Amino acid sequence: MITRIRTLNLVVTRSAGFQACRLADLLVCLCNRCTSSFQNTQAWRPAGRQVGRPALRRAVHFFVRDNPSPDRHPKLPNHALLTMNTSPILLVLALLSFTGATHAQSSLGDKVIEAGHDWLIGHWEATDDDGRTLHQSFAWDLDKHVIAMVTKNPRWEIKGMTGLNPEKEAEAVFVGFSNRGGAVKGRWSKKDGSPMLRIKAMSQDGNAWEGAVVYKKINGTTMEVQLFGVDDNGQLKESVETTLTYRKK
Description:
By secondary structure, the chain is an alpha+beta fold. The chain has two domains: 2-102, no CATH class; 108-248, Lipocalin, CATH 2.40.128.20. It has four helices and twelve strands. The strands form two sheets. It has a ten-stranded antiparallel β-barrel. The chain has a two-stranded antiparallel sheet with strand order 1-2. The longest helix has 22 residues, at 20-41.
């Protein structure tokens, strides 16, 4: 793939598998080589002569020669070209912009909206059989890269975050903690088209519970929250243990 930055007359040719981290390595190499070259030439360079472009070209050459890459980071091809009618500083800024663009990934918000599950965002309330008010809230945070979640009833409260697993971009994971010293971790999937959070909870005294929570949309202001347990083999039970009706506030 060839990226052309015409205003700088810069052409960077790279293989399809070239990763953003390799560009970061190249930037470090460029900065080190240019600094060394500039210091070595200050004593003898003629007045008015520009310093830096030959050093940059040499830096790219040495970077390719001295940095063979493993398979997961294919090296910059030997035919990579840097043609510059600009200063080294502008070149570094251009490469920084290029690095950010190549490393862009879908956010959690993009995936949630694409799946049509953004209706969950907001504050929800329900009443249990004993007349107690239960609270569930979902809120975007960190530029929609995470969802902050709060589950609260009169006896306990859990706060946690859902975000994308960096090792598996398509996998949304949850980590939470309770006001009683417990911890919860989970992974999001679907059940019959509805969002499902498969969780493992551990209390402060070591008692464990495993199950799943399904959030089923009824309409724009109403949802059912279904609680499923697991059998002795760790498989979700077919029957629902508890169902609560929440309304958005």
